[in-house]
């Protein structure tokens, strides 16, 4: 099990634990702090992360900026990858395809999900991670597939 998932499991059920974990994610990857992510669910094959609508993510029309929704999608993908990829392997983002399907006029919730977990063998492989970003009304605003490259760690 990856160290990140171990830490999540220790903190998530404690008062303030999710907030502390989310702050640690932002400290480890400072660019994510631009969307003020809050990790809600982290388990193999699934992660959910929320982000408030605040002036730091606004575009010129006052909605959640499209690229900020991509940033939130990447946080969710990263949490899924950390919970799914075993400690014997590593992962790196390789590409992203995105569709902006509606204006993001509220706080957001990104859900990353891989329904069939792959075998983690000795060969590198691409793992597509679908992520949907929802508004407060539970309607999608952004749909993305973030492909990660997974390889065994060098010994």
Task: Describe the fold and architecture.
With 155 residues, this protein is α+β, with helices and mostly antiparallel strands. The protein has helices at 3-11, 17-28, 66-84; strands at 38-43, 46-51, 89-100, 108-113, 125-134, 140-152. The protein has one domain: Hotdog Thioesterase (Thiol Ester Dehydrase, Chain A). Strand 5 and strand 6 form a beta hairpin. The chain is globular and about 50 Å long. The model has no long low-confidence stretch (mean pLDDT 95).
Radius of gyration: 15 Å
In terms of structural class, how would the helical and strand content be classed? alpha+beta
- Number of helical segments with 4 or more residues: 3
Low-confidence stretches: none
> Major sheet, described briefly?
6 strands, antiparallel
Helix content: 25-40%
Strand order of the largest sheet: 1-2-4-5-6-3
- Amino- and carboxy-terminal Cα gap: 17 Å
Query: Under the CATH scheme, which class?
Result: Alpha Beta
The appropriate CATH architecture is Roll
Full CATH superfamily name: Hotdog Thioesterase
Overall shape:
globular
The fraction of residues in strands falls at 25-35%
């Amino acid at each position: 099990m990856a160290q990140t998932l171990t830490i999540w499991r220790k903190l998530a059920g404690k008062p303030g634990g999710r907030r502390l974990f989310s702050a640690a994610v932002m400290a480890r990857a400072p660019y994510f702090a631009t969307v003020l992510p809050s990790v809600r669910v982290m388990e193999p094959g699934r992660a959910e992360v929320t982000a408030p609508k605040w002036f730091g993510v606004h575009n010129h029309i006052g909605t959640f900026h499209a690229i900020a929704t991509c940033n939130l999608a990447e946080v969710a993908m990263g949490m899924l990858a950390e919970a799914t990829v075993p400690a014997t392997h590593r992962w790196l983002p390789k590409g992203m395809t995105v569709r902006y399907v509606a204006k993001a006029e509220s706080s957001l919730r990104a859900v990353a999900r891989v329904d069939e977990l792959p075998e983690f063998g000795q060969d590198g492989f691409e793992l597509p991670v679908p992520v949907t970003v929802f508004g407060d009304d539970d309607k999608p605003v952004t749909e993305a597939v973030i492909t990660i490259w997974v390889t065994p760690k060098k010994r």
